[in-house]
Amino acid sequence: MPGRATSLAILAATLCAAPILAVVWIGLSGETGDYLRHLAGTRLPTYLLTSALVGLIAAGGAGLIGTGLGWLMARTEFTGRRTLGWILILPLAVPAYVAAYAWLDLSAAGGPLHAATGGLFPTIRGSWGAGLMFALVLYPYVYLLARNTFSSQSADAYNAARTLGAGPMSAFSRTSLPMARPAIAAGLALVVMESLADYGTVSHLGAPTLSIGLIRAWSGAGSLVDAARLSLVLVFIAMLVFGLERAQRRRARSVNAAGRHKPSPRIRLSGLPALGALTACLLPLTLGMLIPLGRLVWLAAHTETAPGLVAASWHSLSLAGITALIAAALGLATAYALRSRTAIATLAARAAGLGYAVPGAVAAVGVIAILSGTQSLLDPAWRSVTGEVFPILLTGTGAALVFAYLSRFAAAAISPAETALARVTPSLDGAARTLGASRGQRVWHIHWPLIVAGVTSAGLLVFVEVLKELPATMILRPFNYDTLAIIAHNFASDERLGEAALPSLLIPLVALLPMIFVARYLSRQDP
Amino acid sequence: MKRLLGEARMADMRTVLSIRGAERRYRADHAALAGADLDLQAGRITALLGPSGSGKSTLLRAIAGLERLEAGSIRLGDTIWNDARTHVPPEARRVGMVFQDYALFPHMTALANVAFGLSGPDKQARAMTQLEAAELGHKAKAYPHELSGGEQQRVALARALAPEPAVVLLDEPFSGLDRRLRGELRERTVDTLRAAGTTALIVTHDAEEAMAVADQLALMDGGRVIQTGAPDEVWMSPVSATAAKLLGDVEIIEASVTGGQAETPFGPVDANGFEDDQPVSVLIRPRAFTLSLKPEGEYTITRRRSAGPHLTHRFASEAGEWTAQTPAPSPIQEGDRVSVELDPVYVRVVAA
Amino acid sequence: MKPVKFFAFAASLAVAACSQPADEASETAQVVNVYSARHYSSDAAIYAAFTEETGIEVNLVSANGDQLIERVRADGERSPADVIITVDAARLHRAEEAGLFAQTDFSDLTDTVPANLIDPEGYWVSFAKRSRVIAWSNTRVQPGEITSYEDLADPQWQGRICVRGSGNAYNQSLLASLVAHLGEESAEAWAQAIVDNMARDPQGGDRTQINGIAAGECDVAITNHYYYAMMVNSDDPAAQAAAAQVTLFFPNQETTGAHVNVSGAGIAMNAPHPDNARALIDFFFSDTAQRAFAEMTNEIPVRTDVSWENPTLAAMLPFNEDDLNVSDLGDHNETAQRIFDRVGWQ
Fold first, then answer.
1. How many domains is chain A partitioned into structurally?
2. Tell me: the pLDDT tens digits for A40-94?
3. Nearest CA to CA, how far is B88 from chain A (Å)?
């Protein structure tokens, strides 16, 4: 059954999975001393416990914010809703470590918030602080997916619950919410994985998660093999998390199977409820983006502007744009390949999703291993012909970066595409065929309008992820090639927050461009 | 036992639910409800019949509390559900509703669906009883997508009835089913509703279905209820051409009254009390025409169609063209000349 | 259509990126490829000056030291790296052990650079120094109460010390120096005592610790000297005010000297442009470069005969440095890390 296109998609997905598989291979094959035993006897329990705590807080917070806002945006109407719909995604463009640096600076002893409240305002730190930071900047994952689900959900189930005696809240929590659960779970899976793979935020806020242990094994003890081994734990957790998400999704098929979809009218809010809705939207936006970036801007007023920001903006924009386009196409192709229901397609797609699980620095090592491995592989043949060493074509090129991003963020592209494609039922295809539509016509006239929102959302997620990606960009980039995230991080890690302000601010600003484009495109599609 | 109770309730004809002047508009220029009045009698099944866009679904949803009225009132006995100040939320109304697509909770089993509206320690047991009454006990653990269309409908009805609501509302409950199943399920649904002794309102756009299920028929058009009454009575005595058309094919002849009679090409008919010179519409059901083969007959058969137990003949003269329903078999063929007589039972004169 | 344009653009970018190393191979322009763990503004100025003086263009990749090591190692003999720069002795040591450096004769530098800052085997040299020192509250700590790192282990400092996490290279190298001087057991006892004396769980960077003193959350902090200098020299009044409440103290002046870590560089094993690499490393010791370190990043230049203007830094000098050979720090880095793990220093 898998045709040429499907095989190609499977190949691409497998390529994306390769770096992680390389990390696994490094972990399993390399020589290792007794460091891991030492770790198990000392810090490992703390790492695991903190990881669990940070993951739970991030998931809880992001779930609450994302689901709430998703529902508001999908099912209500109030002044400012349309604009906010896209603005609410922006916090995703704020790197979590930037938010963390700013919030700790504000709230730590000696910071303005600490001083202004006489020490009453708690310092944003530790597992709570880190979890909160992740919730505030990662909630858009949940928000985007929940919004899509809530807006395509039939209102009848909710209404039926109301007529059966359930109040608005109860009806929501017993029908609309469980029906949206698969989408929310998909968003939460991404939130949890990204929180667990983060290094910058947790190290700055003093929340020793497993990634801290992993980076310490590498940087402190100098053992990349041990780091790779520890990352196996993260890969395992990822498989678990994504497995749970799959289980939810399987039920989603039954959710969609029953009942015809009826567009449900939005609840029009005015007066106090409208004000409440507006506040609910602005609060996470303020906490996750406006306050941290505002703090940085305030600090920036006392510092010189860093040079090279224009070039860095262009680099960020082009890298993110190209990767997003390829990722969206890859996600879609993989989603189509998954429809073939062959084991190999499923395996490739799931493996490609694992890139999320591992800290970027370690994933980058996998990319380096794959690239240098490929070069070494080609070397003998090249030498026999030219008598020279095979040139370095892969490492340190834009292509290598795009490859690294794809391997890291494929999950963000595949999941939404898959969800979107689920809307294209076989009967739709059948109907179009009986009407004489060719394959191309079906894809363009039937599939595309139905999946465009999901696919562009996927592209957007990847776009924003690439904008703020740091470790892989740092190590794999070509010479003299800065991105906004790199400049921001260099200053922030050097505790020059003022200089970090402008590049940090530019990241969400750059992200705004495609968002406006996508928003306009989607609103044209949506009659 | 329950059945007896239901009949006893039917006898007293007590009005349970009354709707007065219900208004609701979606757009400024289009009123979904434009002052609808309707009474539902205790233990009786009312069918609300109307073309699509007539506002019948909106009225149903307003009764359920899912739509807010802009004007008018809805009362259950002495309780006000809706008026200028009040809007009782759906969950406080004790209405049961069967949605057009059933709206079964896809993430819950059949049993959980039925138990949803119940409370108390024995709710599982009560839900099971309800499900067994619908002969679906064996499907208790099945999820909605594992049920057939008819089974889904039965679960939806069981779910609506389980909390013993004051009124059950059914929105096109048979529209998603095939014809054979539809008739069967219709009978079943009526039996179930009667057994429960519930006051019910069924929305439909199918005249045959409406008349088959209803104790009381309400006709709706343009956001108003234009006629209510027993199905036979409404059928026999439509109040307007619109009402007549809702219930089936009808020939409409514009006429004026002279001497208590309205003149038609088929002779004068009783003017039904309209005064002279008043413009009226004469409503003639196709079965009112009796065709007789006559070589010198005034009319020519232009079309002949067989429809099982009867036939339709289209016949024409210079004055016009009409359709007759004639019992099968019939020797009258296309091109034959016929004479026409009118059976006054199936003729009704209404204001033009 | 738009997508087509985008893809064309994507392809052109990929081609442009790919063709970059090929240009180098042509050797028409003089270049030097630098892999640096430093990302300071001083370096950009130094590279610009270097290009101006020699005509050699500097190609730069900067990243975390471990990542750089991994990239050079993986690329092997096709690595374009000429110069590898790290900001930590342990990383220099690790790069050396991974065989990334080419042995070089740096003997001509010994006139101006202290011997302990040059690798005895000639794999690398250090060109700037940073010292890890003690900061205390002007009001709550009297001068003389603390004279050494060891003093911080005293129970009288219980609940009074602020220090950042142990994942940071600066803390690892400080503890590694203590392991070298005191032995593993005593170093562990010291680390344990510091953990017991902490005013709060480790968080933030070194400036966070200085701010902690200013806000009264703790009385003593361990910090790199240049963070304090950065705050004093800052345009931000809040940072200046915080620094004004704090005294910076260089400990162990009577004994081993204050702990010093280095920024160092070596020539890559497979450097395509070894001469240019050597020229750049020599340039790090030029007056221009040494001055830039002192004035732009508040680092301590390794040459003492160069004049520069930075009153804040000048006021800290001179002090007795720990003259431990920095490669010893690399040797003890893993031990230090394990001690941190055992004593529960986050």
1. 1
2. 888 899 999 999 999 999 999 999 999 999 999 988 899 888 888 888 888 888 8
3. 11
**Interface C:A, ≥3 CB–CB pairs < 8 Å:** yes
- Minimal-distance CA residue of chain B relative to A157: B103
**Angle (CA) A167 A171 A173, round 5°:** 120
**What are C9's two structure tokens?**
């653009």
Is residue A306 in some structural domain?
A: yes
Cα(A373)–Cα(C74) distance, integer angstroms: 8
Instruction: Give the DSSP per-residue string, B241-277.
Output: HHHHHHHS--EEEEEEEETTEE--TT--EE-TTPPTT
- Closest residue in A to C201 (Cα) is A206
Q: Do A398 and C13 touch (CB under 8 A)?
A: yes
Look at A391 and C16 and tell me if their CB atoms are within 8 Å: no
CB contact under 8 A, A161 and B160: no
- What the block records as the tokens of C113 is 């650079």
> Is there a contact between A490 and C80 if contact means CB atoms under 8 Å apart?
no
Residue A146 lies in a domain: yes
The answer as to whether A267 is a domain residue is no
* CA closest to A255 among chain B residues: B106
Query: Mean pLDDT per segment of 10 residues, for chain C of length 346 residues?
Result: 42 43 53 91 91 94 87 87 91 90 90 84 92 95 94 95 90 94 95 95 90 92 95 88 94 94 93 94 94 93 92 93 82 90 90
Please list, residue by residue across B130-159, b when 16 or more beta carbons sit within 10 angstroms of its beta carbon and e when fewer do: bbebbebeebbeebbeebeebbbbbbbbbb
Distance from CA of C225 to the nearest CA of A (A): 13
Domain C28-129+261-316 superfamily per CATH: Periplasmic binding protein-like II (3.40.190.10)
Residue B168: closest C-alpha in chain A: A163
Q: pLDDT tens-digit profile of B159-193?
A: 999 988 989 999 988 887 788 888 888 998 999 99
Which one-letter DSSP state was computed for residue C118? B
pTM for the complete prediction? Answer: 0.80
CB spacing of A179 vs B106 below 8 angstroms = yes
Confidence of residue A262 (pLDDT cuts 50, 70, 90): low
Chain B CB contacts of A168 below 8 Å: 89
pLDDT at B157: 92
Which of A89-103, A330-344, B88-102, B218-232 holds the top average pLDDT? B218-232
Domain regions of chain C by residue span: 28-129+261-316, 132-258+329-343
- Is B64 near chain A, with CB under 8 Å? yes
Contacts of B339 (CB under 8 A, 6+ apart): B291, B292, B294, B297, B298, B299
The answer to whether the CB atoms of C333 and A220 lie below 8 A apart is yes
The domain defined by C132-258+329-343 folds into D-Maltodextrin-Binding Protein; domain 2 (3.40.190)
Asked, colleague to colleague, whether C28-129+261-316 and C132-258+329-343 share their fold, the answer is yes
Measuring CA to CA, which residue among B249, B279, B253 is closest to residue B267?
Answer: B253
Contacts of B94 in chain A (CB under 8 A): 165
* Structural domain of A423: 2-254+281-525
Q: Would you say residue A270 lies in a domain?
A: no
**Dihedral of CA B221/B225/B229/B233: which sign?**
negative
Instruction: Work out the angle between the directed axes of helices B2-12 and B179-196 (0-180°, nearest 10).
Output: 80
- Touching pair C, B by Cβ (3+ pairs < 8 Å): no
Give contacts of B106 with chain A, Cβ < 8 Å.
157, 179, 254-259
Gap between the Cα atoms of A458 and A463, Å rounded: 9
Q: How many contacts does A have with C, using Cβ atoms within 8 A?
A: 202
ipTM of this predicted complex? 0.82
Q: What is the CATH number of the domain that holds A242?
A: 1.10.3720.10
Q: Is C79 on the interface with A (CB under 8 A)?
A: yes
Q: Which residues contact A238 (CB under 8 A, 6 or more apart)?
A: A193, A353, A354, A356, A357, A358
